[in-house]
């Protein structure tokens, strides 16, 4: 039988689910910028509760658990950002705040790897951030844990270490925009879909890593992540 496609169809990006042989198919990846006040301050911005802003990574930027991340090209300033990952099982537009958590399948832990020098150049020129954020293998993530197992974490330690030294540490209760608010706001800008992921922002302490570094982190009650660079 002839193929329905003129070129080979790309594979679907997936993440494993803790305790299940089934995989979670990923549709889009949204990221929330400057969602911890201390991180906003360290990046030189006002930590007040301004409307959230979002950017995207691509589904095939994901690195499933156990994957390696070579040091990316065209950068001399690769940064780590530990984040809670929110996985959606339902979506829609203009989702009411009270119904937002009904859309959540589960949670995981991710690292938003950033080519900070390229992002900085883009900011200065008023250009999009994709070259700094949406490059290959820029989104390591853990297995997902269903919300029916752990509930909806609103507090708990979030941390990241480099070669055993803790560099980032905070608490989910420090997020400026909480998970239901992120979902509700995002749904006014995009039609959210089952399979969407939201990287929910990072606490202070972001910084550079180099080839050979071991990044380890976690979110209390959700999971852990470990990634070797290089």
Automatic annotation (TrEMBL):
Is Metal-binding one of the keywords? yes
Cross-referenced InterPro entries: Fumarylacetoacetase-like_C, Fumarylacetoacetase_C_sf
Is Metal-binding tagged as a keyword?
Answer: yes
Keywords carried by this UniProt record: Hydrolase, Metal-binding, Pyruvate
Residue limits of the Fumarylacetoacetase-like C-terminal domain? 29-227
Named from the GO MF annotations, one term is: metal ion binding
Alphabetical list of PANTHER family matching this protein: ACYLPYRUVASE, FLUTATHIONE S-TRANSFERASE
What is the protein name for this chain?
A: Fumarylpyruvate hydrolase
User: Which organism does this sequence originate in?
Assistant: Aquabacter spiritensis
């Amino acid at each position: 039988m002839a193929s329905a496609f003129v070129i080979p169809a790309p594979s679907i990006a997936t993440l494993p689910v803790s305790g299940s042989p089934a995989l979670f198919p990923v549709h889009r990846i949204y990221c929330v910028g400057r969602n911890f006040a201390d991180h906003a301050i360290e990046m030189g911005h006002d930590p007040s509760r301004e409307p959230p802003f979002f950017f995207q990574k691509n589904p095939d930027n994901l690195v499933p658990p156990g994957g390696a991340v070579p040091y990316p090209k065209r950068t001399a300033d690769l940064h780590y950002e530990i984040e809670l990952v929110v996985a959606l099982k339902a979506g829609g537009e203009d989702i009411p705040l009270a119904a937002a958590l009904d859309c959540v399948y589960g949670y995981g832990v991710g690292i938003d790897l950033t080519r900070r020098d390229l992002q900085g150049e883009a900011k200065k020129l008023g250009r999009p951030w994709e070259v700094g954020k949406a490059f290959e293998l820029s989104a390591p993530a853990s297995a997902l844990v269903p919300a029916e197992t752990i509930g909806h974490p609103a507090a708990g330690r979030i941390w990241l270490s480099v070669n055993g030294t803790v560099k980032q540490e905070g608490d989910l209760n420090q997020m400026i925009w909480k998970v239901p608010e992120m979902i509700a706001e995002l749904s006014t800008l995009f039609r959210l879909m089952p399979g969407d992921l939201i990287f929910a922002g990072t606490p202070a302490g972001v910084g550079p890593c180099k080839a050979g570094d071991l990044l380890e982190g976690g979110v209390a009650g959700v999971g852990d992540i470990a990634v070797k660079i290089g």
